[in-house]
Specification:
Layout: H1 2-15, H2 17-41, H3 46-57, H4 60-70, H5 74-92, H6 94-123, E1 134-141, E2 144-146, E3 149-150, H7 151-160, E4 164-171, E5 177-180, E6 186-188, E7 190-193, H8 197-201, E8 207-208, E9 223-226, H9 228-235, E10 245-248, E11 251-258, E12 271-274, E13 288-295, H10 301-318, E14 328-333, H11 334-374, H12 376-384, H13 389-425, H14 440-466, H15 470-474, H16 478-481, H17 484-521, E15 531-536, H18 546-561, E16 566-572, E17 582-587, E18 596-603, H19 607-611, E19 615-618, E20 631-636, H20 637-644, E21 653-656, E22 664-671, E23 686-690, H21 696-705, E24 708-714, H22 722-732, E25 738-743, H23 744-750, H24 753-787, H25 789-797, H26 802-831, H27 847-872, H28 877-881
Parallel strand pairs: 7-12, 9-11, 18-23, 20-22
Antiparallel strand pairs: 1-2, 1-13, 1-14, 3-13, 4-13, 5-6, 5-10, 8-11, 9-12, 10-11, 15-24, 15-25, 16-24, 17-18, 17-21, 19-22, 20-23, 21-22
Helix pairs in contact: 2-3, 5-13, 6-11, 6-13, 6-14, 7-10, 11-14, 11-17, 11-24, 13-14, 17-24, 17-26, 17-27, 18-22, 24-26, 24-27, 26-27
């Protein structure tokens, strides 16, 4: 029964608050009248009895508050009352409310957008069941881990390991497939996977089954598992699809399964076919794979590492010639490895946008402090009526919380817009980025951020306002003078913090801008103007020999070069700026006979003319070189400079290891350097050989793992010849699908897309912080001008001219600016070390960058100071002398 009484009392207090207040008024009034009657019975006159009763009872409002505090549920009623009052106060100051909310919207929205990316890429588990059990197995080397694994090692690991529930491999490149669907061939992404691939990921097909062990063995039948999208596109969502056939690279494959719509492999694919590795440790020069494993329940990463160390040593004992002396087996968390190269950059951006929120909080705190002066008398009246300091702080924090909640709500909408922009700008290689969205974790983060910002920007003003001196504030003019010096000091500290943080962000953004500019100014080694690039998948039985592949390439080049709008055309295994395979080589007659590594490119004659790379010595390839024995090679300038030291390499011979070409090859030319490994890396030593000289096994391997690249130099805009080029390709072979048509400029831009994204994001954050700092400084100086209006009037009445007044106000602002810049330089010197790996061609402590960023901030801050100072000089002395 007591519980029911309490609940009823709570509901009554909550839903009938007005009636409760009326009853409370009547109760207090009745008590007062009882005291008056007792005093009258004691012989007091009426007026004296009333006075004595009021003294005995005390402040009526205090009595009411004490009664309210004793009632169950009053805390909720009190909170609602505070919220209603806060809304009224915010409505009374629309300009202040709008600026504060917009400031918080920018800060919270930007933080939410970046946290969404961090959550999607770094925090949220991979979209597979129990993804924490997924690991990747690699070959450990002195120089670092190598994730490419030979077939024989994978098969040995799978057989001998004890801690894995399943282990699978897939090809590291994969050119996809040419899907024949009755009309024009279509390129689809694909992967060759071992039978346990889907079991490792923990996902079963939605329709049908995955691969059997027999299908994954050499000589197995052609079967395929297709994606949900391809199932709908090719089979119209027919549930009886299993057993039907599709044509991939001219071969029939039976569909045995369809994956769920939510499934996405890494990398993504539309078709999966069996990978059939062969155990041959004595001569395993075949494809390299990536190996994944699913740990048994309860198995740890440490236990897996220990077990694979044992397996690696056993392999070394059994096959000592096939495992290097320092080679080990390394087990790493799959998700950690996927995001390893972007973790640092994302966390730096999250820290940078956190600085923006800090500046926003300081700005709103400054606005609240400005508002505090006008409300000091209100606070004094509240104290005089009996309000305690904790009660005032709670009321003021309620106003701050209301601002933060509205700002976070609008910030959430703003973050969605930011996220759409990030999805368009970010590189496609960013793991899991395409599935980034605002989920419950992001909503929780935003809500937590709202309350944190409410405390950060609301607590100091609340404590300042609640500590108002009663007598000073109730005196004439107290509203403008009480606590003004104390408020001004705190505001100056906040502005110094804003300026210092803004300078640190501005220096970082300037470094990234210079990095991007430096990369844009680098000569890539090719002339990208009017060059079209195209990808072709040549995997399949039709192109397993060099002669068949060369015949097709020659036809395509000849037909394309016959087009009136084309100047030159050629094939290359990998486009410039897209790192390709390395091949070891040995120079004949060189005293130091160690093998060296060089980038390896197989090309057709006319390649250098098509991409615009100059020939520095010797001659280009010709059709006659295709049948020449021994073979020929063109090297780049870096290789010639490193190994021939000023003497001409023409006529020298070298041996290309790895089975790409037969015997020795003669150097017939030296080409200009090309940044084959990205603009931010120096040109590597590179070997160019005629595609027709490759041996059959190497041609077959390259066709399986790398899509052939076709480059066409046009006489006009490259995209204008796409239809013509596609027509000629189909005329040469109607089963080969061309895809990924791009101008060479896009290839160059794609190589620095992450640098561009970092520059844009940090530049935007710096601009936001700079704008907020300028607004904060403007507010401080405007506030100072308001406080000193009477002083300005006296000075001008005594003969001070406008220059004197202007210098007085500007001096106060510049003092804050100088301190902020000094602190900011120190903060910048510390913070720029964090982005040293993200910059190119400039030092983190570059004096020019520090100087230009500091100068830019000082100019903006000076303008924010000068405008209100200039306004102060326009004050009429007579008006100022009458100013309170």
């Amino acid at each position: 029964m007591p519980l029911l009484v309490k609940v009823r009392s709570f509901l009554r207090n909550f839903f009938f608050s007005r009636r409760v207040e009326t009853d409370l008024d009547q109760e207090v009034q009745s008590h007062l009248e009882m005291l008056i009657e007792e005093n009258i019975r004691a012989g007091m006159p009426l007026k004296e009895a009333q006075r004595a009763a009021r003294i005995e009872l005390g402040s009526i409002e205090q009595v009411k508050e004490q009664v309210r505090e004793q009632r169950i549920g009053n805390w909720l009623h009190s909170v609602l009352s505070d919220c209603r009052f806060a809304l009224r106060q915010l409505r009374k100051s629309p300009a202040f409310t709008t600026v504060a909310i917009l400031t918080l919207t920018l800060g919270i929205g930007a933080n939410t957008a970046i946290f969404s990316v961090v959550n999607g890429v770094l925090i949220r588990p991979l979209p597979y069941p129990e993804s924490d059990r997924l690991v990747e197995l690699m070959r450990g080397q002195k120089s670092g881990n190598d994730e490419t694994v030979e077939a024989s090692k994978f098969l040995f690991w799978r057989q001998q390991s004890r801690v894995f529930e399943a282990m699978a491999a897939f090809d590291i490149f994969g050119t996809g497939f040419n899907l024949a669907s009755g009309g024009q061939p279509e390129h689809v992404t694909g992967m060759r996977v071992s039978p346990d691939f889907f079991r490792v990921l923990g996902v079963r097909p939605a329709i049908g089954r995955d691969f059997t062990a027999e299908e994954g063995a050499p000589g197995g039948v052609n079967v395929s598992v297709i994606s949900n999208n391809l199932w709908k596109q090719q089979f119209g969502g027919d549930t009886s699809v299993t057993g039907k056939s599709i044509s991939l690279n001219g071969e029939a494959y039976t569909v045995v399964g369809v994956m769920p719509g939510s499934f996405e492999s890494r990398p993504s694919a539309d078709v999966w076919v069996p990978l059939r590795p062969v155990f041959n440790p004595q001569n395993d020069g075949g494809p390299l794979f990536i190996v994944l494993g699913r740990l048994k329940p309860g198995a740890t990463l440490k236990a897996a590492q220990s077990d694979m160390k044992r397996v690696g040593e056993q392999f070394r004992t059994d096959f000592p010639d096939f495992m290097g002396k320092d080679e080990t087996v390394t087990v790493v968390d799959y998700q950690e490895h996927m995001v390893g190269d972007v973790r640092r950059a994302l966390l730096i951006l999250l820290g940078a946008v956190g600085f923006v929120l800090l500046v926003a909080c300081a700005n709103v705190a400054n606005l609240l402090l400005s508002r505090a002066t006008g409300r000091s008398r209100e606070m004094a009246v509240r104290v005089a009526l009996g309000a305690g300091r904790s009660r005032l702080v709670r009321q003021l924090l309620t106003e701050s919380t209301m601002l933060a909640l509205v700002g976070s709500g609008l910030g959430l909408l703003f973050s969605k817009w930011c996220l759409l922009g990030l999805l368009q700008m970010a590189p496609g290689s960013l793991p899991q980025f395409s599935t980034t969205h605002i989920d419950q974790h992001v909503l929780g983060f935003t809500l937590g951020l709202a309350f944190l910002t409410a405390v950060v920007f609301g607590l100091a003003p609340a404590l300042q306002m609640s500590g108002t001196e009663l007598n000073d504030s109730l005196q004439e003019g107290g509203a403008r003078t009480a606590g003004s010096v104390r408020h001004t000091r705190l505001r100056d500290v906040l502005v110094v913090m804003e300026i210092s943080v803004s300078l640190a962000l501005l220096v970082g953004a300037t470094l990234l801008i210079r990095t991007y500019a430096n990369l844009r100014e680098i000569n890539p080694g090719v002339d990208p103007r009017n060059v079209l690039t195209v990808k072709l998948s040549l995997s399949g039985s039709k192109f397993e020999t060099t002669s068949a592949t060369w015949e097709f390439l020659r036809k395509v080049v000849d037909r394309t070069e016959s087009l009136p709008a084309v100047d030159a055309a050629a094939f290359v295994t990998v486009l410039p700026l897209e790192k390709g395979p390395d091949q070891p080589f040995q120079i004949e007659g060189l005293r130091d006979s160690e093998y060296r590594d060089a980038q390896f490119r197989a090309i057709t004659p006319g390649y250098f003319r098509a991409v615009g790379t100059p020939l520095l010595q010797g001659r280009y390839f010709t059709q006659a070189d295709n049948a020449q024995s021994p073979g020929v090679v063109i090297i780049n300038e870096v290789l010639a400079r490193q190994y021939f030291r000023g003497r001409s390499p023409i006529g020298e011979h070298l041996t290309v290891m790895g089975g790409a070409v037969t015997g020795t090859v003669a150097i017939i030319g030296v080409a200009g350097d090309i940044h084959e490994d990205g603009l931010d890396n120096p040109p590597p030593p590179t070997l160019f050989v005629p595609a027709a000289q490759l041996v059959d096994p190497f041609t077959r391997l390259m066709n399986k793992v790398v899509a052939a690249s076709f480059v066409v130099r046009a006489k006009a805009a490259p995209m204008s010849i796409v239809a013509d080029v596609q027509r000629e390709l189909l005329a040469c072979d109607g089963t080969v699908a061309a895809f990924n048509f791009r101008p060479m400029e896009s290839v160059l831009a794609g190589s620095i897309v992450r640098q561009r994204l970092n520059m844009l994001l940090l530049g935007t954050f710096a601009a936001m912080a700079l704008m907020l700092s300028a607004v904060g400084l403007y507010g401080v100086i405007s506030y100072a001008v308001t406080l000193r209006t009477h002083e300005v009037g006296i000075r001008m009445a005594l003969g001070a001219d406008q220059g004197d007044v202007l210098g007085l106000i500007v001096k106060q602002g510049m003092r804050v600016i100088v301190i902020g810049v000094a602190v900011g330089v120190g903060l910048a010197l510390l913070s720029t070390r964090l982005i040293s790996s993200m910059i190119y061609g400039v030092r983190p402590t570059d004096p020019a960058t520090l100087g230009s960023a500091s100068l830019g901030l000082v100019v903006v801050a000076f303008l924010a100071t000068y405008i209100p100072a200039r306004r102060a000089t326009k004050v009429d002395p007579m008006v100022a002398l009458r100013y309170e």
